[in-house]
Design goal:
alpha+beta, four-stranded antiparallel beta sheet, 19% strand, globular
Length: 227
């Protein structure tokens, strides 16, 4: 017999730092084509998990440490999701992993989207809440967390959704060098064009900006509030 507690035991044993469960009814507002049922029609639970991202990468003058950690943690998340699905089949429970960092173009909205939004799934599963900077903020690690997800055909007890953490201080809005946060919804392409790309001088791909993470008073989590 596998239950809510056992789900988390397995996920933590595979290397996750956070884990939460959302019931399928919490995705009623998902964009067309990006609902868990659009991926797995028999889905009844969404299991979201997170791994902490080293805070020291925000302090570096070089953008290489942050970039390399991000590039390393993505396959780690995908491996945890895959191993979890395999482990669950030992209990005759079918699950499907959702890629951590793989987007496709949505003509309806003019945005890149995951097949199911990782941050919205994490919010629905009670890991944290989405802040003004469009990033998930968790009590334990703030926005310094990477997210993974598994869709499951079995219904499990859902976790309680957290109260909003972000107080809309707008420090991230003011810090953005391309004003990508001026509107309520992140202007995705503005952000991506500035933050991600090739450094022609050093001839390497890098993430050149994470100022919205840097400035957030909760970037270490509400349990480690920076006053």
């Amino acid at each position: 017999m596998i239950d809510h507690k056992k789900i988390k035991e397995i996920m933590f044993s595979l290397g996750a730092d956070l884990c939460g469960i959302a019931s399928i009814d919490r995705f009623a507002d998902a964009p067309a084509g990006c609902h868990p049922l659009d991926v797995l029609p028999t889905c009844k639970s969404v299991i979201s998990f997170g791994c902490r991202f080293p805070v020291g990468t925000l302090l570096c003058k070089s953008d290489i440490p942050y970039t390399r950690v991000r590039n390393s943690i993505t396959p780690k998340m995908d491996a945890i999701a895959l191993d979890f699905c395999i482990a669950m089949e030992k209990y005759q429970v079918i699950c499907v992993p959702v890629p951590t960092n793989e987007s496709q173009w949505d003509n309806n909205t003019g945005r890149w989207r995951s097949i199911v939004s990782q941050k919205h799934a994490a919010q629905a599963a009670g890991l944290g809440t989405i802040g003004r900077h469009s990033l998930l903020i968790t009590p334990e690690f703030g926005s310094m967390v990477w997210l993974g997800m598994v869709l499951c055909v079995q219904e499990f007890e859902p976790d309680k959704i957290k109260e909003p953490i972000c107080e809309h201080c707008n420090l991230c809005v003011d810090a953005c060098p391309v004003n990508a946060l001026e509107k309520p919804e992140l202007q995705q392409q503005l952000c991506w064009d500035y933050a991600f790309g090739d450094d022609e001088e050093k001839q390497t791909w890098r993430i050149a900006c994470h100022k919205c993470r840097d400035i957030c008073p909760y970037n270490l989590g509400t349990q480690n509030f920076i006053s």
